[in-house]
Design brief:
The complex is a heterotrimer of chains A (181), B (48) and C (560). With 181 residues, chain A is an alpha+beta fold. Chain A has two helices and twelve strands. Chain B has 48 residues and is mostly helical. Helix content of chain B is 67%, strand content 0%. Chain B is rod-shaped and about 70 Å long. In chain C, strands 2-1-3 form a three-stranded antiparallel sheet. Chain C has 16 helices and four strands. Chain C has a domain of 192 residues: Cytochrome c oxidase-like, subunit I domain (Cytochrome C Oxidase, Chain A, Up-down Bundle), CATH 1.20.210.10. Classes of the chains: A alpha+beta (181), B mainly alpha (48), C mainly alpha (560). Chains B and C meet through helix 1 and helix 2 of B and helix 5, helix 6, helix 7 and helix 8 of C. The structure holds protoporphyrin IX containing FE (HEM) and copper (II) ion (CU) (2 copies). The site of one copper (II) ion has 7 residues of chain A, from loops.
Chain lengths: 181, 48, 560
């Protein structure tokens, strides 16, 4: 009998299992456990784990907090190519706020290599996608939620934040910037 | 044949019980995925 | 309810006449959705091919929304309804429970599918098939999806009802066939899927009508993906069932072990649906414990199940072939397989592609931390074109080659093309999936009209390799569309103009299924060394790829 007919034996549960089949199941089982342990292990020993720190917020509140940091630490006004956005250089270890809105990441930050910052992410309208390039770190950004991610840039350079959550007709123009010195 | 009278093993009975399977297949993801997830989101603190 | 039964002279299968008609209509509706989705695929691919960049942005997003909805929801689920009716009524030699209600389900699905498509093509509903709030579509976009889902839910209940009828009327002895068990798994997952869909889409509809002020975006994503991802798990269960069916039909293959294969499906029932969490690994608001438990299907138990199926399907074929005398060396059984039979070649390409490309990439990106590397990049469509196109679509295409003569009673036209089609479509899809995954590894975004960022103030410059990969995606995609479009033309022409085949005997009572007399002596046991070697090759690729990605992750900015 085949797979499209009922099993030939009334009691099929007690049929012996082929040896190779059994070995394969054992291998697959061990591999499954290894992969499970890997995730847990990385939480303990790994350097890249997405933070779970999240708060409910409002667009107004988040915008105000961002504005406060911008007012305090802006070092220059961006060039035309930088959309004349404020370029903000906060001290190491501080809280920095990034707004995702149709169709900008605002403001521009200048960070120091090897220093840690608390990056707060939120959106003003739709969801947006924080996609840091050429690093390739990707985080979903929600409106009305404030997500706090500790980041430690490990290389200097010019980084782009591409929006990779579809957010309407101007989605492809939504690119922001972070400088790491 | 002796086989005919033998009791069907429990696991085989479980796998032959389609509505029990339906119950398990709905309950487990509803509890572990949906309810747990929604509870976490509902309990997020408000930012200061 | 009197119905009649037709015994197909070609396959020996017995069809309830009412069920048979439903299968045909559902399959045809599915193919129409595939046609529309395929035309949209052309617009999508020719726009994402940087050198061509065909459509303007608004039309691109419209085409992509339509492509996703028609392919993922309408094509696959219509076809799955046909599979459910086949696996219940035909394989159990039983009448279909409540054919009238099944028709009501079909028409709800059809009306829903048309309504949603109308909304999409009117514009202003280019929200992608995920329709994330707070981006809003027109109310009939959601209403159509709800009607479609309710119709599909009815289909699942008719399937369960048929299992009850078969048991009550004793049309089979013992346990249901393995393929039916796989279909049951699909139906159970489908019920969870569709219920979740209702829970999220009904409030969304009310919101679009102005009755609800706001929908929480994280909650939306949690519940929406309980539908969106679980529907992929319906596909997995359904196409694994189809693999077993094709192995049985083409080779007369018998499962290596009923116990193992059924237990693997049982693991699917218990854990597969938790993987909806794959989509929230890079989201705020849900904690790591939730992410780790869910994304790993508890503890990778569903991956374990897939690895089991991946071994037992070819293993069953190997046993059947060796029993026929193809015993030389490790692989004579495989070399001497009917590679010219499109039902077989589709199934085998589906199995290998699903495992190697879809499976490995899926587990990689479903790892909590590794997900950061590819979330929302074009790696994701790369992965699921390996699962839902190579895995599901190709398996269904292969099954259709068998169904045209058996169910539609027509000869397949252009047999020469039929031989080639699975390779043309399947292998070009392998390429599409691979190069999309390549581009995604470099960071290229999905659902993105212009990788050159025309008009952006601070445009990012993708590396040349990313452009190369997207160009290759374009080329391979066009070939895939030719392979898929060719299949549609071939099937439609065969249905319309193929030689009519003998209907076979029609009778008013079904012939019950009986078990062969127990012989006591077991047939000589046949080992499966060839399959084991293939499985080990798979395992090694899996392990290497998995750890390469951890290495890549460890080079990124520190995050905590
Ligand atoms: C026939 C050849 C096909 C080609 C060339 C093709 C090509 C593509 C491409 C390039 C994308 C990504 C676009 C982007 O994110 O910017 C895409 C998305 C997608 N495709 Fe296909 N596809 C094909 C067939 C299919 C089939 C058969 C299915 C399902 C059964 C399917 C399901 C999807 C889905 C669900 C999406 C995601 C849409 C979204 O992001 O909203 N495709 N396709
Ligand atoms: Cu955006
Ligand atoms: Cu965007």
């Amino acid at each position: 009998m085949s797979a499209i007919s009922p099993p030939a034996e009334r009691i099929w549960w007690k049929q012996p299992i082929d040896k190779l089949e059994f070995i394969w199941i054992a291998i697959a089982f061990v591999w499954s456990l290894v992969m499970f342990v890997m995730m847990v292990y990385w939480h303990i020993a790994g350097g890249q784990n997405l933070s779970n720190e999240t708060y409910k917020t409002t667009k107004e509140m988040f915008a105000a907090k961002t504005q406060a940091v911008v007012d305090k630490y802006t070092v220059r006004t961006g060039t035309d190519a930088e959309k004349q956005f404020p370029v903000v250089k906060p001290p190491a270890g501080s809280d920095i706020y990034l707004i995702g809105r149709l169709w900008d990441w605002w403001p521009i930050y200048e960070l120091e290599k090897g220093k840690t910052y608390k990056l707060h992410l939120s959106a003003m309208d739709y969801m947006h996608g924080f996609s840091l390039q050429p690093q390739n770190i990707n985080i979903q950004v929600h409106p009305n939620y404030e997500h706090v991610v500790k980041i430690t840039p490990n290389q200097s350079g010019t980084y782009s934040i591409v929006c990779n959550e579809y957010c309407g007709i101007g989605h492809h123009t939504m690119v922001g910037r972070i400088y790491v010195k | 044949m002796a086989d005919q009278e033998e009791r069907v093993p429990v696991m085989q009975q479980v796998l032959d019980n389609h509505f029990l399977l339906l119950f398990l297949g709905i309950t487990i993801p509803t509890v572990i995925y949906v309810l747990w997830g929604v509870m976490e989101v509902a309990n997020i603190a408000v930012a200061r | 309810m009197a119905t009649t039964y037709r015994i197909c002279p070609r396959s020996g299968l017995q069809f309830d006449t009412a069920a048979e008609k439903l299968m045909r209509w559902n399959a045809v509706a599915g193919v129409l959705a595939l046609l529309l989705g395929g035309i949209m695929a052309l617009g999508v691919i020719l726009t994402r091919w940087p050198a061509v960049h065909l459509l303007p942005a608004d039309q691109f997003y419209l085409a992509l929304t339509s492509h996703g909805v028609n392919m993922l929801l309408f094509w696959i689920i219509f076809f799955e309804m046909a599979v459910l009716y086949f696996a219940s009524s035909t394989l159990l030699h039983c009448r279909l429970a409540t054919p009238k209600i099944a028709w009501a389900g079909f028409w709800l699905m059809a009306i829903g599918a048309v309504m949603t498509n109308v909304a999409i093509f009117q514009g202003e509903s280019s929200v992608m098939f995920t329709s994330y709030v707070p981006m809003q579509a027109k109310p009939h976009f959601y209403l159509g999806l709800i009607l479609f889902a309710v119709g599909a839910l009815i289909g699942c209940f008719v399937f369960l009802g048929t299992l009850v009828v078969a048991k009550a009327e004793k049309t089979y002895e013992g346990s249901i066939p393995l393929v039916t068990f796989g279909a049951l798994t699909a139906a159970i997952i489908a019920i969870f899927t569709i219920a979740s869909g209702a829970v999220i889409l009904i409030p969304t509809l009310l919101w679009s009508l102005g009755y609800i002020r706001e929908i929480d975006t994280i909650m939306y994503r949690i519940v929406w993906w309980a539908m969106g991802h679980s529907s992929q798990q319906i596909n997995v269960s359904a196409h694994v069932a189809v693999w077993y069916a094709v192995a049985a039909i083409v080779f007369g293959a018998k499962p290596m072990s009923e116990k193992v294969s059924r237990s693997a499906f049982f693991l699917y029932i218990l854990f597969l649906q938790l993987a909806s969490a794959h989509h929230l690994l890079s989201d705020p608001g849900v904690g790591s414990e939730w992410k780790v438990v869910n994304t790993s299907y508890f503890m990778y138990f569903a991956v374990l199940a897939s690895m089991i199926h991946g071994m037992t399907v070819p293993g069953a074929i190997e046993q059947a072939q060796r029993a026929k005398g193809y015993n030389k060396g490790l692989f004579e059984w495989l070399r001497k397989a009917p590679w010219g039979n499109p039902a077989f070649s589709s199934m085998f390409l589906s199995l290998v592609g699903f495992g190697f490309l879809g499976g490995i990439s899926g587990v990689m990106m479903g790892t909590e931390q590794l997900n950061l590397l590819i979330h929302n990049t074009i790696y994701v469509p790369g992965h699921f074109h390996a699962t839902v196109v190579i895995g599901t679509t190709l398996a269904f295409m292969g099954l259709t080659y068998f169904l045209v003569p058996v169910l539609f009673r027509r000869e397949v036209l252009f047999p020469g093309f039929a031989k080639l089609q699975p390779y043309l479509f399947g292998l070009s899809m392998y390429a599409v999936a691979l190069v999309m995954m390549g581009a995604g590894t470099l960071g290229v975004s999905r659902r993105h009209w212009d990788m050159a960022f025309a008009g952006a103030g601070m445009a990012y410059e993708w590396p040349g390799a990313a452009y190369l990969m997207m160009g290759l995606t374009g080329i391979a995609g066009v070939v895939a569309i030719i392979g898929g479009g060719g299949w549609i033309l071939q099937i439609v022409f065969s249905l319309l103009f193929g030689k009519r085949l003998d209907e076979g005997e029609t009778r008013s009572t079904p012939i019950p299924l009986t078990l062969p007399p127990q012989t006591g002596a077991h047939a000589a046991h046949v080992g499966t060394p060839g399959t084991m070697v293939l499985a080990l090759v798979f395992l090694v690729s899996f392990i290497l790829y998995y750890f390469v990605n951890w290495k890549y992750l460890s080079s990124l900015w520190g995050m905590a």
